[in-house]
Amino acid sequence: xxxxxxxPAKDIFHEYAQDFAKKxxxxxxxxxxxxxxxxxxxxxxxxxxEAVSKGTLDGGHGVLVYHYGKQTALALWGSGPGYAMDxxxxxxxxxxxxxxxxxxKLYQSIGANVVxxxxxxxxxxxxxxxKKPVTKPDDLKGLKYRTVGISIDVFTxxxxxxNALPGGEIVSAMDRGLLDAAEFNNATSDRILGFxxxxxxxxxxxxxxxxxxxxxxxxxxxxxxxxxxMRAIIESAVxxxxxxxxxxxxxxxxKDYVELQTKDKVRFYKTPDTVLKRQLEIYDEVVSKKSAExxxxxxxxxxxxxxxxxxxxxxxDTVVDRKMAYDHYFGPQGKLKKG
Length: 339
Fold this sequence. Notes:
- This protein has helices spanning 12-27, 48-54, 87-96, 99-109, 150-157, 170-175, 187-193, 220-224, 228-262, 273-293, 295-318, 322-330, and strands spanning 2-5, 35-37, 59-62, 114-121, 128-130, 144-146, 161-163, 181-182, 201-204, 213-219, 267-270.
- By secondary structure, the protein is α/β, with parallel strands linked by helices.
- It folds into 2 domains: 2-121 and 211-254, 3-Layer(aba) Sandwich (D-Maltodextrin-Binding Protein, domain 2); 128-209 and 267-312, Periplasmic binding protein-like II (D-Maltodextrin-Binding Protein, domain 2, 3-Layer(aba) Sandwich).
- The longest helix has 35 residues, at 228-262.
């Protein structure tokens, strides 16, 4: 099978795509061989859905929010606050809370001949890279800013002039002054793509993409034609890759977070609570409007909310706050703090 990712070859996201392909190739003993090309090799990054649906490509690796222009409800898999869920909890909703069936219904509604496997929970993404620290919501007004999905509407509501660009085009746009600020995803991707070359200020924490995951996509005709055993192997490889990606991300992102500060001299700041609260308020306005316009959007949103209320209540009541343990060991007076 010939695949394409939506990522530049140098990005860790393309590495994740290759990791999945290797798992399938190894688990099938070579009976199925997936070759993954980088973004632009066959079609532009935002052209993946159409190419896979038509069979120009056999499959691909990307994110659902990149198909926002085809059907806005696709952005609910990762573009927004997730109703207090993290990405792993949103994947739990997808598999066990009705999301899988709703996604199939959604793709069918737009005539997309694809089989989709959301996987790979992403950590909360930064607000982005700026020329100077953001201190209040009004600081975003008038900025030429890059984001994707429902975040386009959220940042437009915050007063930014939004431009949705694929990952590989962001840094050059900032360098040429076409963007004042931008977000992509994580310390490793941002470092590899060259964000520190065009900005030394990164704002951490945001609700615009708090619960995103990747998407593995097959042409449905070709996937359905595979033997039952091979389809079962693929589904198991998706889940194995999801776990492996989340573990690799912790290792690599934390290393590059240190390198960005020590070698690249990047200054990190926490996004002010006033900005975070305003994001939530605008998000509610955006999804209310889209729910009124799009019955499927409303159906998916209601399903997510019902699952989130139950799951996040359980999580908040059950999981101990790790901040106390962090401060005990590594805080200013921490027992294990170095230096």
